[in-house]
Task: structure prediction
Amino acid sequence: MIGVVKNKQGPSAKKSMRGTKKEEIFFKSLVENAQDIIYRCKIFPEFGYEYISPSVKAKLGYNPEEYYDDSEFVYKIIHPDYINIARDINSGCYDYSKPVEICYIHRDGRILWYEDTITPFYDSFGELVAIEGILHDISERKEMEKRLSYLSFHDSLTDLYNRAYFEEELKRLDTERQIPSSIIMGDINGLKIINDAFGHKEGDEILKNCAEVLRKCCRVEDIIARWGGDEFSILLPGTNSEVALEVAKRIKENSTRTTKARIPLSISPLEYLQGRK
Result:
């Protein structure tokens, strides 16, 4: 008689299987409910997305199916400046030991920054076969960095450049190509008296009016800075003395026409310095 041997599993084996199943459910729930975007791409034999978490819909506005159906889809939603970086990542020509920052285009047109932490997978021959990554939204951090960078070189009241930036530009533009260059310097008359008599709010309005006049009278390439207190400096690259004097004259004429503050704007006689000829 031929008997049928049943595969009897002991209590420990069944317990192990239940534990494995439980872990699978746990990790699937963890991945699919993560706020970050988690993905896996196959690289060999051809590039394509094997998985991308549902959070991509909430974060970027796209459905996972769009990634699965079109292997080139990811390149269509990456900012053009970062497409070559993305192609390097997906071809193995990249150092995966460090996270990479990439700009993505949201479905509604917004530009969002993401930090991608990537794990590569190789076969027994050392060939890259797949990558897994976690995309973390760093848009707020990048916006803060941009703001801090802006503030480090701008005067917060007038929105002009500050002295530190002006001095850096002096060094940068100290080249033969920028000769001749001129500098116009001046200050606001009676700002301290205005602050004492009418308060700093009125004094601030005078400073902002002065900044507006300077912007109006100068060219785009000119560097206008609040040097400090009531002092302003203007760097005019590639400008001779005749042109600098004309700009100074234009500033004086326009300063008498401003009416935004209660106190008329008065700028001291503007001096100019001409660089090497």
In short: The CA atoms of residues 65 and 230 lie 61 Å apart. The beta strands are 37-42, 48-52, 100-105, 111-122, 128-137, 161-162, 182-187, 223-228, 231-236, 271-274.
